[in-house]
Amino acid sequence: MALSDDLRDLYQQVILDHSKSPRNHGQLTDCVHVHGDNPTCGDEIDMYVKFNDEGGIADIKFDGQGCAISQASASMMTIKVKGSRRDKAMAMLKDFRSVVTGEGSVQDEDALGELILLEGVQKFPQRVKCAMLGWRALEQAMQESAKES
Ligand code: ZN
Q1: Is 60 exposed, middle or buried (CB count within 10 Å of its CB: 0-12, 13-18, 19+)?
Q2: Which of 17, 48, 56, 125 could form an S-S bond across to 28 if both were Cys, CB 3.0 to 4.6 Å?
Q3: What percentage of the chain's residues is helix, strand, coil (to nearest 5)?
């Protein structure tokens, strides 16, 4: 299904805004650091995540380079998951994966906010990898933090 013109404009504005001025951009020390890349597109992401004692996300920053979708998706993700409990962050991850792959059902669309705009990438399998890059890095960081405790 084609996006309406309004949605397409909004999508472009949001992607452009976040890729030009990514939020939570930078590095953290004393944290879990995960590097992710997407060789088919040339995207690279370094994700820095600080977990609190309960495994929730106390702080998160990223840097990297690549296409607008990879950077914008990571930027929007950090806003949504920062300060989240672990189970909440996992639920968003699962929902976002459903949004961009079109597989499975989305449990809490409201929690994703602007990220829903990325559902247009469903039609482009290469772009799904771009949109998921930062999320896969977050997933890996959460797995590593679980191992440590
Ligand atoms: Zn890309």
Answers
A1: buried
A2: 48
A3: 55, 15, 25
Strands (E), 69-125: none
Q: For the chain, how many structural domains are there in total?
A: 1
140: containing domain: 5-148
Tell the burial category of 43 from Cβ atoms under 10 Å away from its Cβ (0-12, 13-18, 19+).
buried
Tracing tokens 């702080």 back to the chain, one arrives at 59
69 alpha carbon – ligand 1 mean position (Å): 6
Instruction: Report CA(122)–ligand 1 centroid distance (Å).
Output: 14
CB of 42 within 8 A of CB of 69?
no
What is the distance in A from the centroid of ligand 1 to the CA of 41?
5
Distance, CA 129 to ligand 1 centroid (Å)? Answer: 7
Q: Does the model's pTM come out above 0.90?
A: yes
CA distances from 108 to 31, 42, 60, 135 (A): 29, 31, 22, 17
